[in-house]
Amino acid sequence: MDPELIKDCVHCGFCLPSCPTYVLWGEEMDSPRGRIHLMSQHVEGTPITPEMAGHFDACLGCMACVTACPSGVQYDRLIEQTRAEVEREHVREPRERAVRGLVFGLFPYPRRLRALRPTLGLARRLQPLLERAHPSLGAMIALAPVPGRRQRLPARVRAVGERRAVVGMLTGCVQNEFFPQVNAATARVLAMEGCEVVIPPHQGCCGALSVHSGRDDQARRFAKRTIRTFERAGVDTVVVNAAGCGSSMKEYAELLADSPEWAGRARALRTVDLAEWLAELGPVAERHPLPVTVAYHDACHLAHAQGIRAQPRELLRGVPGLSLRDIPESDLCCGSAGTYNIFEPSAARDLGDRKAERVRSTGAQLLVSANPGCTMQIAAAMRRAGGEIRVAHTAEILDASLRGVSPSFLDAAGGKPRS
Questions:
Q1: What is the pTM of this model?
Q2: What is the pLDDT of residue 117?
C-alpha cells in the first residue's frame, strides 16, 4: 500500500453517497475513506485482522468513489494494492480458500468453462444442496445464464467496403463461453464499419478477475500472454467488448511496471472499448430502424474506471426508432463487480435487487449492458422479482440495426420482448 497515495485522502466524505456498501449499511469502515483509514493503520504496523480483511473484501471495487472524489484520490490503485496485501498476509478459513481456489481455477480458463457448460442443467437441479454446502456455490448457479449456441469465429474478418482500420478483438472468458453471440455481433459491427478484424484463436484470460482480487502473479502471467498473443497477430489496437477486461488491459503498464520491457510492450498495445472505438471512428454503415425502448446500464468499469458514458448512448441514439431511457441511480453498482457476487452473495443480492427495481421503473422493454457480469447479475435479480427483462449488449443492438434484421432478443412484430 503506497503511503503517499493514502495521504491524498482528506476524509471529506464526498465518497460516502457514491459507495454501494456505505449506502447499504451506513458503516464508516465500509466506505472508501474508512477503508483508507484501515490501510493507513496497516502501513503504520497494524496486522491485517479478519475484521480488517472483511472490510476490504466487502469493497466492490466499482470506482464510483474515484469519480466522486474532489481530491483525486487514486482509490482504484489503493484497493488493488490492498487486496494483493490481503492475499499475501491473511489466512482465510478452509471453506473460503476452497471456493476461491475453485473460482480462480475455473473462470479464467475458457476450456474449463466450456467443459462446464453441459453440467449446468444438473447443477441447477442441485442448487439447494450447493447453497447449503456454501452460499457462493449457490450464487454461481443462480447467476449462470443458459449458454448461447457456440459460434466459431474466423481468425480474420474482412472489412465490408473500404478498409478503414485493422484491429484485434478480445474474445474473453465468460463472454466467449456464455455470450458467444456478443462476440459474433461485435466482429460483424466492426467489419460493417470498415474494420478488418483479427481474432487470434486460443485466446486466454486477460487477467481482469485476478488483478481485481489481489492475485497479482496470476494476473501478470495472463497479461503477458495476452500482449504476446496480439503482438504475434500483428495488431497494435485491440477492441474489447467487456468493461472489466478493457479496464484491466488499459492498466497493463502499471501491472507490469516491475519489468520495463513488458511495461513498454503494454504501452505499445492500445486497448479501446467497442463503443469508444466506434465513436472515434465515426459511422459509415446505414442504420435500419429498431423500434424498441431501451434502458442503458452503465457498467462500473466502463463509466468509472474508463470514463466512457456518452459514447454508448450516442451509438444507441443513432439507431432509428430506438427510444433510450436512463436508469435512476445509474452510478450505483449492480453488485456484480467481477467475482463479488460469488464471494459476497448477500450484499450483491441486495444491490442487484435495488438495481432491478430501478430498471423496472424505466418501463423499458430491453436492458442494454456492456459487461457480461452485469448482464448475469441484473437478469438474475429480475428473475427473483418475477419480472424478466430481455438483455442485450450494445454490439447486438448495432448489429441488428446495421443488418436490418429482427434480432433474436425481440419479437419480429412490434419490438416486444420474448417471454
A1: 0.89
A2: 79
